[in-house]
Design goal:
This protein has two domains: 136 residues, no CATH class; 169 residues. Helix content is 76%, strand content 1%. It has eleven helices and two strands. The termini are far apart. This is ABC-transporter type IV. Keywords: Coiled coil, Membrane, Transmembrane, Transmembrane helix.
């Protein structure tokens, strides 16, 4: 029972990974009411399920004749695997691809009692019922076919995994940059408020009610931010654009009121602001890794980040809005074609 050679074990790993992808994609697609390509990678494989399937066979083999021990071994083995995978992925990428925070009796969101008990049942059903017909088919396959298939799949999955790994690291770096950028933009906003109010009470009133209103709005927003209210890049960017516009108008109308050092500082702040925003703004023609990153986010709607929670949610919202707009445009194009 369960005595396979290395190519057969590898074949089973890919088979379980594919079945796991089918299950997860269908389940999440139903919940999200849209087609979801689930998983860390973009190909139709979920390695966690492949590892889980192999683990279930390995831990159940010594206790195969005792359902209770198989159940307990499955609970423990799957829970350990799920916990280690979650911890390692979050440590590397600063992102969680799943969470059980909403479940009772969970441990830091990585594992929960309900899931552990479910994996125990799966181990019993899988090892005693599902694996038997799978084994019969596997043993009927020519070894040459198994070897060639696993070799080809290994090359494809390895390429997919390397791209996914690189993309996940890019996403982590982008989240870190977003947080630093927000802090820098907030500091710019405060400094701009000082420059706008350069002449004291006279300038606080502004050269007109419009500029005065903008200044008051900006000050209120900065006070809110310092009180702990999180703002997105779009909000901060819009606020800074208004501040730069107000400051430029003041300098153009009354250049003598602003010493050279103040004008140079304003120019330096704007140059730094443009550098930050250009890096945060996606280019019209996105490269392959940007497409891959967005597909990863769309395929993992429960993605979260404890360290960069606000930035992660902001990225997810932007990606969802973009794909919603794309879907609306495609639907309109289809309507036009059908009408024609």
């Amino acid at each position: 029972m369960f005595n396979y050679n290395p190519p057969q074990w590898l074949f089973l790993f890919y088979f379980y990974s594919f079945c796991g992808w089918c299950w997860e994609s269908v389940y999440v697609s139903v919940l999200e009411k849209r087609v979801v390509n689930r998983g860390f990678m973009r190909g139709p494989f979920l390695p966690l399920y492949g590892c889980g399937g192999i683990m279930m066979l390995v831990v159940s083999k010594p206790f195969y004749d005792n359902f209770l021990l198989v159940y307990i071994a499955g609970c423990i083995g799957a829970t350990v695997l799920e916990y280690l995978t979650g911890v390692i992925m979050e440590t590397l990428f600063k992102v969680r691809y799943w969470t059980y925070d909403h479940k009772k009796f969970n441990y830091k969101g990585y594992i929960c009692l309900e899931s552990s008990l479910f994996w125990g049942v799966c181990t019993v059903v899988f090892s005693h019922f599902l694996q038997l017909p799978i084994e019969k088919v596997l043993l009927m396959l020519p070894m040459g076919f198994v070897s060639v298939t696993t070799t080809v799949l290994t090359m494809l999955v390895s390429c997919d995994f390397m791209i996914a790994f690189k993309t996940a690291l890019e996403l982590r770096d982008f989240l870190m940059y977003m947080d630093k950028a927000k802090e820098e933009l907030r500091r710019m906003q405060k400094r701009l408020d000082v420059l706008i109010a350069f002449k004291g009470e006279d300038v606080k009133e502004g050269i007109g009610s419009k500029i005065g209103g903008i200044g008051n709005s900006i000050s209120s927003r900065v006070e809110g931010l310092s009180a702990g209210i999180s703002s997105g890049i779009d909000v901060l960017g819009a606020s800074l654009e208004k501040s730069f516009a107000a400051l430029r108008e003041k300098i153009m109308l009354n250049p003598a009121d602003y010493v050279i050092s103040a004008r140079e500082e304003a120019a330096e702040l704007y140059a730094k602001y443009r550098i930050i925003m250009d890096r945060l703004t996606p280019s019209p023609v996105r490269n392959f890794f940007e497409w891959y990153k967005e597909r990863t986010i769309m395929g993992n709607p429960t993605m979260s980040s404890a360290k960069f929670s606000f930035s992660m949610e902001e990225i997810k919202n932007k990606v969802c809005e973009r794909y919603k707009r794309t879907g609306d445009l495609e639907a309109k194009d289809n309507d036009v074609e059908n009408a024609g």
